[in-house]
Every structure is written in C-alpha cells, then in structure tokens.
Amino acid sequence: MQRLDLCSAEEVTPGNALKVEAGDLTLAVFNVDGEYYVTDDLCTHGPGSLAEGYIDGDVVECNFHNGQFNIKTGEVVSPPCMVPVKTYKTVVENGRVFIETD
Fold first, then answer.
1. H or E segment at 98?
2. I want to staple 51 with a disulfide (CB 3.0 to 4.6 A). Which of 17, 42, 77, 83 is the partner?
C-alpha cells in the first residue's frame, strides 16, 4: 500500500473540488460537508474535468456532457455517463489529504 500526499485540507473548501496531479494520476479532491473524497479527475464519458464540474451535495456534474457521478462512491447518477469513476481511499492527517493506492 502506497500513500500519496495530495494537498492541504484547507485548499479544498466545503462544496468545492481541487484538481491535483500526483505521480501519474490526475485526481479531483472533493470536500463534502467537511469530509474529503478523491476520484479520478477525468470523466469516464469524455474529456471533462470533474474538479471543474458543478457540485451539488455529494454529486458532481461533468462540465463536458453533464453526466453526473456520486462523489462518495463513484457510481453514475445520470447519463450520458455509463461507467463509474474510480474512487480512492482517502485519509486526512495533520491537515493534509492523502490517498492510499495499491
């Protein structure tokens, strides 16, 4: 198990997201009511950035074709997306947001 340091928790205010590049990954770090979640940034349907999408509660709407994903689970909420987005185990420690990868 590898742990990647993504950003300061303060950089992601509630209801917002931050696009982060870590290693060979491009990720979206979300703050949903003070809880942090991390997904791949790239929409599974097209070239949209989820970190740049519209966030409503625990749902993010891609800014490209308006498909929606559950931020917590990665599951598709609304088409045209059909494939869930990958999520990562997220840990906040000492004011920093980390993910754990295999």
1. strand 96-101
2. 17
Torsions phi, psi for 77 (to 5 deg): -105, -35
Cβ density class 69-80: b for 16+ within 10 Å, e for less: bbbeebebbeee
Q: Is 19 exposed, middle or buried (0-12, 13-18, 19+ CB in 10 A)?
A: middle
Q: In what order do the strands lie in the sheet with 96-101?
A: 2-8, 96-101, 87-93, 35-40, 25-32, 17-22
Polymer length of the chain: 102
**Residue 74 in this model has a pLDDT that exceeds 90:** yes
Give the per-residue pLDDT at 46: 85
Closest CA to 29 of 42, 39, 15, 14: 39
- Its domain, for residue 15, covers 2-101
10, 48 contact by CB (below 8 A): no
Q: What is the pLDDT of residue 2?
A: 87
- Could you tell me the CATH number of the domain that includes residue 6? 2.102.10.10
